[in-house]
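Weekly sync notes, structure subgroup
Attendees: PM, AL, DS (notes)

Item 1: joint prediction request from the bench team. They want all two components modeled as one assembly rather than separately. Inputs as received:
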Amino acid sequence: MSTLVGIITAADEETRNRSLEQFARSASAETLLRECEALDRLRRENENLYEQVRALFFLHSIHRFHLPGKPGIAGRGVIPFRGFEELRNRRFEEAIETFLRHQAQAGPSEALSSGLSAAYRQLGFQTLADQVRRSVRSIAGNQWMFRVGHPSDHPLRVHRRLLRPLANGLFPVLRETTPVRMDLTHSGWSDIFFLGMDFPEGARVLNISIDLSLESGDPTQGQPPRPPVEGYFRVIDRPVLRLASVDLQASAEITTFAEVFDFARDHLGLLKAALIAAGIVPPGMEGAHQPLSDLLTQLVGSGQGIELVSKVNDIPKGSRLAVSTSLLACLITVCMRATGQARSLTGGLCEVERRLVAARAILGEWLGGSGGGWQDSGGVWPGIKLIEGRLSTEGDPEFGVSRGRLLPGHHLFGKDEISEETRRALQASLVLVHGGMAQDVGPILEMVTEKYLLRSQEEWMGRQQAIGTLDEILGYLKAGNIRAIGEATERNFKGPIQTIIPWAGNLYTDRLIQQVRAAFGEHFWGFWMLGGMSGGGMGFLFDPRHKSSAKVRLQEIMDKTKTRMERSVPFAMQPVVYDFEIDERGAWAELHGRAGESEGLADGPAALMPGDYYLLTFPDILRRDPWLLSPAQRAELEIFGALSAGDPALVDVLPSLFQRMLPQKQEDDSQDSLSAMLAANAFDREQHEQIRGDLRSGRIGLAQNRLPTRSLIEEVPPEELVDATTGLPKRFDEIGWAALNAGEVAVVTLAGGAGSRWSQGAGVVKALNPFARLAGRHRNFIEIHLAKTRRSGRLCGTPLPHVITTSYLTHRALADALGDGFGSGGPLLLSPGNSVGLRMTPMVRDLRFDWEETSRQVLDIQAEKVRESQHSALINWARSQGEGSDYVDNLPDQCIHPVGHWYELPHLLRNGVLRGLLEERPQLQYLMMHNIDTVGANVDPGLLGLHISAQKAMTAELIHRRLEDRGGGLARIDGSVRLVEGLALPREEIEFRLTYYNTNTFWIHIDRLLATLGLERTSLEDERSVTEALGRMAARMPTYVTLKEVKKRWGRGQEDVFPVTQFEKLWGDMTALPEMDCGYVVVPRMRGQQLKEVAQLDGWLRDGSAAYVEDLCDWPD
Amino acid sequence: MEITKAVITAARRTQRSLPLQTIIDSDGVEKSVLRILVEEVIEAGIDEICVIVYPGDETAYAATVGEHAGRLQFVQQEKQLGYAHAVYCAREFVGSDSFLHLVGDHLYVRPNGGRCAARVVEAARLHNSSVSAVQATRETLLPYFGAVGGPRLPGQTGLYQVETVIEKPTPTEAEQRLVASGLRSGHYLCFFGIHVLTATVMELLGGLLSSADADEADGSPGAGLSLSAALNLLAQREQYLALEQRGMRLDIGVKYGLLTAQIALALNGQDRDEMLTRLLELLMSRSMQEGEEPV
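Output from the run, pasted for the record:
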């Protein structure tokens, strides 16, 4: 029997918890392939969900981490395009079949393994997600919503107390408030659904419901903590669904079913998801063609409608307090109460109702295409509770499928277990903050799931420790020992949490902790990570006597640290300190506007919405003709007018309303700075207009990037290039060392680009992003490159010059950072570039081409719907902005763009950096030029020796293509060998025939390059001839039109992503010049791979690449 | 269990004329709705009938039942305090006896003839307990009925042990609390409008009506109370069964209710062929007017 199948299906826990690594590390390729066959059989034949899924993740891991590099596995191989297409269309089973068939025919290769690994991994996640979906649907109380398909069949009715208008013409308002939750233990993300369903014993969290307010410097200004999220429900006298999000400043009146299910159309997706998950518009009605008013007639009577309003009180995104799930749960609750699905219209909820709200929040999150863990709706419950996974038993939908249930059990701690005094002490000691970072934790949750299923030894130990910490903290809570809690939570963060997921910590958080400890010494009791990843919502425990000074100091420390790091780390907002209180009520509702209300406040709260709601809705209402207003709208205006002067909640609204309605002078500060920035960077307006003209007329565009279809594009056979993957002959090393020793080499790091994929367009300098801990400290890309150069210099005995090219985006930040004491051991120079382009609103034609013609990953069914609706919203946006118009609606540095790395070497010639270097070191002959993200590239003497011996003008480094290596490669085009960009390939499948991928690392012979440009060393002094020569060359290089995603930040940590058009020229096209004599060498993957996305990091660390890089470095510390 | 009394509620002000409407019964004879109900009761072997009425309706009602008038006693519901209160008005009539209860705005039809009430009374006598007639009803109709949940009685056809009663449940609540074995998904046991109840229910109603929870939003005491609330308590207190009926309950108080009831009665009685023919004629003449070929 197969060893791995034995591990997965073992009855005893010890065997079942054995890790894959233990076995796979020493197993031969042949053994592993045999195991793969057995695992594949197991996952097909076995009925047990978790055995299937674990087999899938074992298969993924073997193909990703264990087979590559083993003797018997070819480095080079063809990935069948058909398999790739199947993968992208989420036909994972078929993709696996295709890849396996090719493996049987062509033999195993790293290329095929990369395809198999991706397919197995995605199938694993898909299987798990399907199970969560099935479980949510089959929970009693949710099933009917999937059966009701016709408005006339709708079985809900709005509560009669909400249907009757008050004497003043307003309808009563049902107001629901919900605290948010914080996780006292950071349970190692054990509340992820999948983990709880397989390992319910280990799925445990201590969860506290809290109210919040923003700490204000002035104690007289501060508001006491209040439930952070609010939902409002009322009947309206128009047959529409009116939705408003006060915090996101969005509102809409919905009249069709299609709009309700269109989540990404506006910022109201969460409200729509709540309406659906609460059964007001049941999910079974998606696609119904009847008017929405038919449904409303059933619910509230003819001619009437429903209004749902959400409000978040001052809590920014990324708080790690599960604000969005809490808001979703709050809205679902208010809708359920309003339709009689909770026993009580007002007050608290009973346990059965709370559980149903939690289940529906999971459903709502799935509908909206997001998802967290099961503790996120913890705010619905009051006070402090232990939430634990539960074994599934007969009658549960999960029984026989998974060990645990989807929904956990909640134990509410009474005051006899955790005393009032302890609760007060915790509040007196804890300072809650938002550090300002708002990151997507999705990849982290996937990593946690994967590592759990693989039972990787260290991580598994970490998980056991985290489980132990929970019991420890629970003990301290019962004993009232807050100081010990601080010590335990910090130990948990530094130990188990970062053992499980190293990316949960970051340099920013480390610096905060360090500074707080320096400032408060023993009065700082410990750091507390709130969940997800650090940098956003975090807690610091202090001696209560120092809490108030700590709040002030912590704000200063965060502000200062953020200012220092904001060019290298993506911050979404200014850091803030909160005030908080434990909420002992949980979800709570009140009915505003009593029966017979006539004097507003005289008889309880008036039936009005929150003040900011009127800022959002009144401008539109006031602009309408009065006779178009409904009676309730007129009544609302009157009552608002009468109350606004005296009601403290409304007093600020009137002045702001005036401000909003009066015409405003256009804010032109940012326009001025954009113009200044363009001027400072030699923006070529003439060229810009020409590009715009070409773009609008269709002469250039995404479709026009491609080579003519008649081009003959062929794979280059291995004999025509040098394979250095298993090393090069010694003589090359000797030649290389000699050149290094003679000072003939310099390194050029290309750091002018923004690295938009790295930070999803956040506009930070990727080169400075401290992304990984190497040799005990967080390091950024530049530090790593300089450390490699330092080592090369030390080994050859001659320090190497290191040039970093910069652009308007990166120059100042890099210049400042290099002042921080980084060094390469040799001359360190910055080569500023001054070519910029101004981004443009994309052509609808290009947007459609991008979404329809270029292939893309099909998402999970619900996420795909969300994406489709986003697409139509973006097309509308492009039309309304004007296709091809200048993109200026953002911060200036988000509006301009670098124009591609082709320009970076020419800048070196134009800005005098190369000239200076050559004057200082006339012996300098070779440059090694590489991308900022090729962290494994160093000045390898063997490769240098090869380049020198071959006497080429340029040698390009390649790697064997794997599935993730997209964007062109090496090809023979119409007879000549060259690098070709993915953008230029007429058909996508051609790329899959090309097995060599461009690493963008080049060895360049300076004099030969100059000769190609029509220059020589002495002519570098003549600025005009340099400019002319470069101009001539630029004209010969193709211009690619691309779409880039930029983030627009607004509100409190909110971000929108827009695709914008820009153009670029790329260095690889130099290889197409007939006069440029180029050589090509295949290098090991660890050297040539590029880190383009944060999601790659975990694999990079696990497959040994990080250790490989560490070995190449000499750190200054 | 002896069952000799029946209570028919017909006191709702807005529907006072319903029991007076005339209709052709399945035996082909023209009768008032109230008379049909009274005959249903009499055929169940019950002689003493109490009708709860809006003050002043007694004479008109007595006149409409013909020779059965002598069996009727009328009790006035002086204030419009809802259905549960109307039932409670019969407490003195009921005394300590079990009683059959029907609502005045419904008619009942069994597919193969026979009377629905008689079946319920028989079951109550046999099992010596309260029995409510119920019918498997689609969840989309839940807003109109009270519904029960509980297991099937072993060895019995169509009998359930009632554990929970909820008035107009939401489907959410129904899925969680009203599941009964043997029903298709999305179907629940909803009241048919015929009950045999022990006198305990009067005691329970009395208790509930005196509590503030039963008040309507506008403050009317007891008007917010449903009979289901009392029946839910009854299920906790003593054996309470539900008998599944396969007939039809016809609400004559809704739009076209009377017409539908008439057609159903005719299709179920001796005039079946005549009714079918007339309906077909109606459909065909309509098609021909529109220029379509007759089907």
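Discussion: Chain B has ten helices and 14 strands.
Action: AL to compare against the crosslinking data before next sync.
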